[in-house]
Amino acid sequence: MIEPKPKKPVRHLLGLSGGKDSSALAIYLRDKVPEMEYFFADTGAELPETLEFVDVLEDYLGKPIKRLNTGRSFEHYLKLNGNFLPTAKSRWCTSELKIKPFEEYVGSDEAITYVAIRADESHRQGYLSSKTNISARYPFIEDEKNEEDIREILDSSGIGMPKYYEWRSRSGCYFCFFQRKVEWVNLSERYPILFEQARKYEEFHRDQGRTHTWSQGERLDDLVARSGEIKANAEQQEIADAKKPKKRLLESLTQSDRPDDGCLMCIL
Ligand code: SF4
User: Fold this and answer.
1) Which domains, ranges and CATH numbers included, belong to the chain?
2) In this predicted model, what pLDDT tens digit does every residue of 199-252 receive, in sequence order?
3) Are 77 and 16 in contact (CB under 8 A)?
């Protein structure tokens, strides 16, 4: 008689974006879910601070963080998409560089993915796989953890906030079209080479008289030419946000122009 194959144990997975929330969740669950597998879908266009932060986190967790990479560059997918830049409405980058590598990594295994949506943002849904073998859990919602708690988890671990929060409000690709105009200015000052690369991507189709821009309604050339004005506006906005009750700068930065839920995989 043929023995039935033993059933594979359910896999427990936590995807890190290099953002504060998924990092705090990994720290929070490190001892609660010892069988956790950590992964990071590296788009190949991550900020240097993000990569450094993931390395630090890996040391803290004491387990490898599996780097998922399609082995193909952003340019490859850009070409496949007719050299049309991804946009909020046509977000092929998330699908190709984040979701597909994750689903391939899981395969047909039964898996639970732990999503770092907080209790104070429980209206958001995050990435939900259409694959029936993957289900989601939301520990911060279950345990009523909010923004303050996340900071506390990061601070008390000694890891603290990712460094890019000094100049940018979220993780993700250096050219992410969700970044604010002032963040583009900051990118141009901190990482001129990356900014220049992003600027070059806007050049596709220009010879046909069409302009595709990362930042809505404005080419990066034009944007950076008025960097003084953009910075002054951002400062005024910070002052106005700081006066609003119960809303700190970080919160205002991370919540005021958040993308819709499809992209939480890049930023949590
Ligand atoms: S971070 Fe932005 S550009 Fe990068 S994959 Fe996510 S949505 Fe696309």
Assistant:
1) 11-165 (3.40.50.620), 181-255 (no CATH)
2) 999 988 777 767 789 998 899 999 999 999 999 999 998 888 888 765 443 343
3) no
The answer, as to whether pTM is greater than 0.85, is: yes
Which residue ranges have their beta carbon within 6 Å of ligand 1? Answer: 43, 86, 91, 93-94, 97-98, 172-173, 176, 178, 263, 266
What 3-8 contacts at long range (C-beta under 8 Å, 24+ apart), as own/partner pairs, is 8/109, 8/110
CA angle 117, 103, 118 (to 5 degrees): 5
Mean pLDDT of 77-94: 92
Half-sphere exposure of 254 (CA within 13 A, CB side): 21
As beta bridge partners, residue 22 has none
Question: What is the best residue among 17, 75, 98 to mutate for testing ligand 1's pocket, by most ligand atoms within 8 Å of CB?
Answer: 98
Rounded to the nearest angstrom, the distance between the alpha carbon of 173 and the centre of ligand 1 is 5
Question: What three-state secondary structure class fits 20?
Answer: helix
Helix (H, G, I), strand (E, B) or coil at 152: helix
Task: Tell me the per-residue pLDDT of 38-74, one tens digit each, with 9 for 90 and over.
Answer: 999 999 999 999 999 999 999 999 999 999 988 889 9
